[in-house]
Every structure is written in structure tokens, then in C-alpha cells.
Design a protein that fits this description.
With 200 residues, the protein is α+β, with helices and mostly antiparallel strands. It is 30% helix and 28% strand.
Length: 200
């Protein structure tokens, strides 16, 4: 048995792990197995996406001096992770890119409508000699195909550049759950069989 506490961290902090229990409660070698199995357990959170920022603290654990096997903790840790995420809740973030676009001035209205439709935030465009330049921050999920659209719209004359900006909170109702791969550890009876390769 493994018991974890999960706490939020500032964005960009990554995953942190610590243990507050002693050797007599759970031998340190087993505590290290929990630590080692954490990255794999975090590849799918409750919405199916990878958990990338959180602090996990090992606050409890049990073992049997005869029947416990080290692999038991690679089975138990994903269960503890998912339970901790249910209890704490999760915040879905989405990747954002900063784009700079330049094209013929007569296309500005259409480009701005596109920016709004993609949930973009943009600055006041600069217009010079019949061309505009616009900077915008766009969610990757809504703008992935836009460079192709923009190129077609401008007949290949426009300039489109982008760079990764970071992550922002996904608005309510916008984030989608990713299909789960494999068995949910909270379906405990199936998870035990799946983790031991008894079922596919």
C-alpha cells in the first residue's frame, strides 16, 4: 500500500518527490521504488494527459516482511497517484505559441477574425506601406493548421513566424480528455491483472 499527498507548484517547476515516513514504516529501498515508478505513473492524469507540475509526498506505506515484492510498489504507486489526483483536483494547461504575421493590408480583417476564432490574444497591428504586421498569442490546439491557411490566404506572400511561449490555463469547456491508454489504475481488480501482464 502507498499513500501520497499531491500539492500544486508554480508553473515550470516540474515534478518533485519527497518522503516523510521512516524506514520502520516502509523500508527506504521500497520508498525508492515509489520514487522510481512515479514518472511512468504520471504519464496519464485523470483527464488522460500527462501530469507535468506537482509535488508528491509519500505520507504512508505498508509492506509485509515475507510476502512483499519490490514490483508491488510499481503496481501500487499508479493507484496512489490517481487517488491523490482525484482528491486534489487537477488544472488543465494548454501550450501557447507567439506568432508574428505580416501580409497585405486588405487581409487584416479576415486575419483578426481568425485570431478571435482561435481564442488568440493580439496587439494592435502595425500598418506600413499597404502591409500589416500583427503579433498574437495562440493556443496550439486551435492554431496548428493556421500556417497553411495563412499561406493560402496570402498566396504565399505573407510571412508567418512562431515560437513556443509557455502554458496557460485551459478555459472551462475547452479542454478535452485524452483517450486512456491501457487500464485505469482506479479500476483496481483489472489494474492488478494488467500491471502483471495477465490481460492486455
Amino acid at each position: 500500500m502507498v499513500k501520497l499527498l499531491v500539492e500544486p507548484l508554480p508553473r515550470g517547476s516540474g515534478i518533485q518527490f519527497e518522503s516523510v515516513i521512516k524506514e520502520k514504516e516502509l523500508p527506504y529501498r521500497y520508498q525508492e521504488h515509489v520514487r522510481a515508478s512515479l514518472p511512468e505513473a504520471l504519464k496519464q492524469g485523470r483527464k488522460g494527459w500527462e501530469v507535468t507540475v506537482a509535488k508528491f509526498t509519500l505520507i504512508g506505506g505498508q509492506h509485509h516482511h515475507v510476502h512483499t515484492h519490490p514490483l508491488d510498489f510499481f503496481v501500487a504507486t499508479p493507484v496512489a497517484v490517481q487517488r491523490a489526483l482525484v482528491n486534489s483536483g487537477t488544472l488543465l494547461l494548454e501550450p501557447i505559441v507567439r506568432v508574428t504575421l505580416s501580409a497585405q493590408e486588405e487581409l487584416l480583417g479576415r486575419v483578426i477574425r481568425d485570431m478571435v476564432a482561435m481564442r488568440g490574444n493580439f496587439d494592435t497591428p502595425v500598418i506600413h506601406q499597404g502591409w500589416f504586421t500583427l503579433e498574437a498569442d495562440l493556443p496550439v490546439s486551435t492554431s496548428l493548421d493556421y500556417p497553411t491557411t495563412f499561406r493560402s490566404m496570402t498566396s504565399g506572400k505573407g510571412v508567418y513566424a512562431s515560437e513556443f511561449l509557455g502554458y496557460e490555463e485551459c478555459p472551462a469547456g475547452e479542454g478535452e480528455s485524452a483517450p486512456r491508454r491501457g487500464v485505469d489504475p482506479l479500476d483496481y481488480s483489472k489494474w492488478i491483472l494488467y500491471a502483471r501482464s495477465a490481460i492486455q
